[in-house]
Amino acid sequence: MNLIPHIPLTPPLSPGVWTPPDPVTVVLNTPASFSCVSRGEGVVTWSYDGQVLPSLTSDYSDSNWLTIATFRIDSVDTRTPPDVTCQIAYTSPDMTVSAPPVAITVLSVTTDPVDTIGVETNGATLSCKASGNPTIGWEKVGGGTVPSDVTVTSDADSVTSTLAFSDLKQSDGGQYQCVADYGGLGEHASSPATLTVYVLTAEPVGDAVLLGTGASFTCESNGVPTAVNWYKDDVLVTDTQLISTVGSTSKLEVTSTAFTDKGWYKCEYVFDQGTTTSEKAYLSIRGFQ
Known about the structure:
Elements: E1 16-19, E2 24-27, E3 32-39, E4 43-48, E5 51-54, E6 57-61, E7 66-73, E8 85-91, E9 94-98, E10 104-107, E11 109-111, E12 116-119, E13 124-131, E14 135-140, E15 150-154, E16 158-165, E17 174-181, E18 187-189, E19 193-198, E20 200-202, E21 207-210, E22 215-221, E23 227-232, E24 235-236, E25 243-246, E26 249-254, E27 263-271, E28 274-277, E29 281-286
Parallel strand pairs: 2-10, 12-19, 21-29
Antiparallel strand pairs: 1-3, 3-7, 4-5, 4-8, 6-7, 8-9, 11-13, 13-16, 14-17, 15-16, 17-18, 17-19, 20-22, 22-26, 23-24, 23-27, 25-26, 27-28, 27-29
């Protein structure tokens, strides 16, 4: 609020603006308040967003011939609001004067994090950017653990925060948002972004079969891979006739086992975002040659 200096008791002041409104800085979706002090008794209105609006309060003092008017925007809901102007209409003399337009600077998250896919045991990042110089924190929507690995970079008029995940687990999946804290001015939260973690939902299970009978191993995932590889004793299985992959399910099947088929088997799912490998499962062969 502008302070009014002491005015000596002299004849009434000529009409006009005594103290124009000051520019204000607010956080997006919070209120903005203005005051305008005019000489003499007039009706103060405010121009904002193409409208002429009445003052929230307007008080005239006979002792100093000043009118103090205030105006409030309940919620500044755009990052680029129009200027605000106060206007004073007098009846004697019949005239209208206006103060210079004043700007509203709006602080907010300007770049939201985006939906991201990660693969278990690999890494992933979420980033957001906010105007001004806030402290940026991260929250998991609905509660949950948020990694402490956060990188912050800043320039003259903004701050960028990057949340890093390493060794992803299925429990890391969910919605995350960043929150820009502007101290006494308030906070602004980003739109939430979804982190989806691709994991193996089924892995090979060890088995013991009779010589000459069939054996198979199956892997499944909650995401569709770009490729699936199978390994026996850590050596890539190159016989593609043994492997069938449909959607997110892959199977390695031996129709008639030999003793050379015994060993440790595992699958490897390859995604654009990384690779994940199952635990090993042992196949033993029983019987006589």
